[in-house]
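Now read the record:
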Amino acid sequence: MATSERAVDRGQQQGERIIAELGREIREARLAAGLSQGEVGRAVGLSGARISLVERGRVLGVPFIHLPRILATVGLDLSARAYPAGQPLRDGPHLALLAALRSRISVGMPWRTEVPLPTGGDRRAWDAVIGRRPVAIGVEAETRLRDAQALERRINLKKRDGGMDRVILLLSDTRWNRMVIRTHGEALRLAFPIPGEVALAALSAGRDPGGDAIILLKVPAVTMANAVPTVKA
C-alpha cells in the first residue's frame, strides 16, 4: 500500500475510534444523569434519533460543533489537540526540491528517502538521509519556511530521537525564505553553523559537511501535472 494511502487510512481509523469512544462516554454519562436521548437532543437542537446515532459512533451526519454541546449537556467537556505524527503528503515542488539536492551530491553517497525514526511506534521520518555511519545526515525539506523557531525545535527533537550526526535544512531559494532567514539570522546561525555553500560543496565532493547547515536551492517551476502528491510503495 502506498505511503499516502496508509496515512489516510490511519487517519480514518483513528477518527472512527475517537467517535466510538465519545459515543460510549456520552451514553454512560447520560444514563448516569438520568436523561433520555430525547431530552439531550432537545437541549442541543437535535432529535433523540440523532443522539442515538452519536452514542453508537455513527455521527457522520452530525456537525462536529454539536459534539461538545452534547457532552456539556451530560456533564462532560471535550478537549482536543493536534500533534505531529508521521509525514504529511508531499507535493511536486517538495519532491523537486529533494531531487535538486540529490543531483548536487556525490553519486558515491548513499541516498534514502522517507526514512523512519528508529524509535518503535514513532511515525516521524526524515525526508531523506545521506550517507551512513559513522556520519549519517538527516534532511528536512521545506518549500516555504513559516515558523522558524518551531521548525528548529522540531528538527532538534528529530535529531535527538533519530540518531543523526548532522542535519541539513533544505529550503527553496525564494525571496520569502531568505527574508525569514534574515529575520531569525542569529538563532539560525547558532543552530546551523555551517554555511550552506560550504556544506553543499562538501556533499558534492562526498565529504562530511562537518555540522548542521541550511542549504537553499533554486527549483525549476513544477507543472500542475507534476504537482500531484507522489507516494512511495
